[in-house]
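INSTRUCTION: Work out how this chain folds

Token vocabulary: learned, describes local backbone geometry

RECORD BEGINS BELOW THIS LINE
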Amino acid sequence: MKEQVVCKTTDIDPGEMKATNFGKQNVLVCRTLDGEFYAFLNQCTHQGAPLDKGIMCGATIDTSKPGEYHYRRNGEIIRCPWHGREFDIKNEGRMLANPEKKLPNYKVRVEDEDVIVYK
């Protein structure tokens, strides 16, 4: 099993993300608002955009009333900077519009202040 310390917990505040390297791979480490860490290949599945140039955001849900929407899951969605594709951080990086597609992801654990990515 390959593993590597990619950053310190203090390097990423809740609701933020950071590009780093895992071996030769450029990875995106995300920290959700609840403090959990996740890691994905830092590349959109569509045309390879660097996801760290996008944003962590939430999603809207339709309330069935015309023109009325509610915002939910703040800080749990990665939005691609090029074409706006959205990926669910807490659900293996699955695309919201097509859950069959997902970002390549890595396992993450925290030991003391170290954020460790591994396969």
